[in-house]
Amino acid sequence: MRIAYFNANLRVGQDGVTRVVYKMIEGALARQHEVIGITSTLPEESDHNVRIFKVPSVVLPLQKSYRIALPGYQRFEKELREFQPDILHVNSPCTLGFAAMKYAHHYDVPVVATYHTHFPTYPRYYHLTKFERLAWKISRSFYNGMDRTFVPTRPILDELVANNIQRLEYLPNGVDVSLFSPDRRSNEWRMRFGGGEKPIILFVSRLVWEKDLRVLAGMHDLLRSRRDDFVMVIVGDGHARAELEHMMPGAHFLGYQSGATLAESFASSDIFVFPSTTETFGLVTLEAMASRLAPVAARAGGAEELLEHGKSGLFAKPFSAVDLARKVEWLLDYPRFRQTISEQAYVRSNEYRWEKVLGRLFTGYAEVIEEHNRKRYRNAA
Fold first, then answer.
1. Which residues 6+ apart lie within 8 Å of 270 measured at CB?
2. pLDDT tens digit sequence for 317-353
3. Domain region containing 313
4. Pair 152, 289 in one domain
């Protein structure tokens, strides 16, 4: 099978979407499939033995670490026609994703997508709520142009169905348990933050407002007003970082991390907090669970499927800094309860090993190709 993967950014470890795309690529290569990656941002370095083609692009104004491809498939048409893909897999309804869809329709090639990012929720974070309906319209136009769209959690799948998006299949993301593991816990890492004796609360994300950073800052402010027996650590970068640092005095901002460095930060912490309500899956929450942290997340989106409240994690009310702080305080006040939660979270994370997920993905590719060929033969008859 010859597979073309499209993602605007293929910088290794850039974000959760990129980490998922590279696991797909690794799975394809391990199964002896041929692969090409099409992107607007090349990896700085990569151990992945795969051909990657870069298309012309411009910097995204609000997020300078991301680039957006110039419209049209002509910029990668020659490379794909030489490669002769059996299927295209796109990972975002951006200009590159739309170009891939148009190429697939023009050259009669099957095309699938993964619903990674819940873009229709983003306008509300930038005082642009009137554009939310437009965002759903664009999403429908894009995903209804796919032969199949893989959706990582059932609550999000139900929301897409309610918004008239078709040909959906539930397929969760996986977690790399060889990388994200409690074995990477480091006392030296913990010593950087007040001797390592206080419980460490970790938040990992791109630092953009749609991750509900104001709720995070409100939680931190409430906890600091009542106690000093914890340490707050923030991993990630983004356009909101400077303002967030001002809003969270005393928190430790470590910047962007990936690979073993990120895995060490996870494993060396105690509580993972994630207030975002815009997640289709919440890969960082699963990585925290695999690292044996006790997670507290907003009861919304992907978290509703990953966590079992009171067993493998705690839910907080969406958009509520007060409730988020309350749930974190329970874990601080009752360390035995926190340990039980973290152990159950670790057990739960092992249900999402990549081997199982990737097996279903490649079966899905084969089904889509077969369906596409049947339709082609019917139309030719």
1. 199, 200, 201, 202, 293, 294, 331, 338, 342
2. 999 999 999 999 999 999 999 999 999 999 999 999 8
3. 182-352
4. no
